[in-house]
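Consider the tokenized backbone below.
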């Protein structure tokens, strides 16, 4: 168990009791009206509560690879970040740099600035450095298709993080592996949390970035899962590009409050970042940080998201990626590529973090991943 989670084992038992009783953690402020209301979708509600209960378990023993090639020393890798203002992208970059030091590699991060031109320029710069490997961090490889082909032709292994819709190797675009949780699992559990916590009665606003295929696919899946519950009504499907979230979210939230008022009871977003920028508008409107709309981030679970969740400041839950752990996985995948071994095929399990089960932690990752990778690498 992660050191910061030892104190919350008892809380985990309480979560099971709460789910059995028909309410979810953190639901005290609205439990009375939900328990009085007839469930909006009894069959789906029962299934959603079971799924959420499992996803909120606090024990996370390492279930990733236990074997692989010893570390190949003296390599250089470049991490191209979609934008370093995205805490998820930045968190993985830090994990890559940390793991690279362990195996004696040089890791460098380039900022794509959140624009197509910026990402192309960063990729061109990366190619000019003639590295042994390149990470496509959080953006669509098709947006830099010419540069991807040049890297493929030069024999430089490419590894994505949230670069394509599915985890693992990709033939088109040609990636040695794409490191991510299963978007289907993240989307499903995010919608299930809303269904379960609301007792099948929710007015939902969904925030997405349609410019990123991975993000658009995730939000479409959330929408699909919400539709399985007749009482979960999608009020708005709001498209705001992640790099514009800081400038557009406040205005969007004001407009949504004006349109839907108290009908807006829940939100889901493809990235926690939206709620960082939505909070000022909700606060200005007199909303309670621990009240409706109850917000869940379907990624990435960066420290600022945990701070909002733990402090009950306009975000009730997050479905975090194990950001540092995935940075270490990227280094391990590169090491497999350099050694001529296949990709590990590992995909991190889905998890929900709330103020009740986080134990005050600012991140989520499996227990023992550093030790496991160091053992594999002989480092």
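A designed sequence for it:
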């Amino acid at each position: 168990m992660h050191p910061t989670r030892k104190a919350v084992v008892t809380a985990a038992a309480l979560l099971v009791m709460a789910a059995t009783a028909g309410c979810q953690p953190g639901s005290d402020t609205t439990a009375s009206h939900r328990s009085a209301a007839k469930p909006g979708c009894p069959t789906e509600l029962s299934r959603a509560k079971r799924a959420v209960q499992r996803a909120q378990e606090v024990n996370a023993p390492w279930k990733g690879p236990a074997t692989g090639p010893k570390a190949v020393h003296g390599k250089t890798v470049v991490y191209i970040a979609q934008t370093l203002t995205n805490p998820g992208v930045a968190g993985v970059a830090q994990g890559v740099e940390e793991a690279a030091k362990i195996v004696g590699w040089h890791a460098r991060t380039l900022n794509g600035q959140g624009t197509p031109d910026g990402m192309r320029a960063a990729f061109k710069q990366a190619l000019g450095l003639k590295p042994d490997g390149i990470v496509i961090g959080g953006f669509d490889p098709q947006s830099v298709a010419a540069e991807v082909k040049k890297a493929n032709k030069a024999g430089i292994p490419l590894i994505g993080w949230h670069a394509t819709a599915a985890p693992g190797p990709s033939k088109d675009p040609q990636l040695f592996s794409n490191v991510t949780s299963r978007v289907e699992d993240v989307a499903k559990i995010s919608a299930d949390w809303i269904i379960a916590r609301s007792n099948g009665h929710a007015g939902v606003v969904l925030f997405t970035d349609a410019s990123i295929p991975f993000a658009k696919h995730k939000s479409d899946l959330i929408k699909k899962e919400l539709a399985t519950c007749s009482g979960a009504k999608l009020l708005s499907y709001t498209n705001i590009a992640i790099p514009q979230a800081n400038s557009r979210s406040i205005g969007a939230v004001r407009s949504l409050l004006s349109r839907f008022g108290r009908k807006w009871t829940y939100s889901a977003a493809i990235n926690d970042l939206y709620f960082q920028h939505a909070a000022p508008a909700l606060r200005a409107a007199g909303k309670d940080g621990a009240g409706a709309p109850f917000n869940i981030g379907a990624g990435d679970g960066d420290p600022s998201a945990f701070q909002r969740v733990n402090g009950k400041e306009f975000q009730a839950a997050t479905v975090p990626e194990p950001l540092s752990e995935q940075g270490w996985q990227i280094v391990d995948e590169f090491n497999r590529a350099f050694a001529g071994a296949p990709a590990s095929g590992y995909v991190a399990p889905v998890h929900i973090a709330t103020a009740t089960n986080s134990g005050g932690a600012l991140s989520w990752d499996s227990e023992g991943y550093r030790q496991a990778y160091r053992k594999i690498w002989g480092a």
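The longest strand covers residues 232-239.
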